[in-house]
Amino acid sequence: MEKDKLQKMQIFQENLQSILMQKQAFQMEMDETLSAIREVESSKDDVYKLVGQLMIKIKKEKITEELEEKRKVIHSSLEKLEADEEKISSELKKIRDEIIKESKNRN
Question: Domains along the chain?
Answer without folding.
Answer: 2-106 (1.10.287.370)
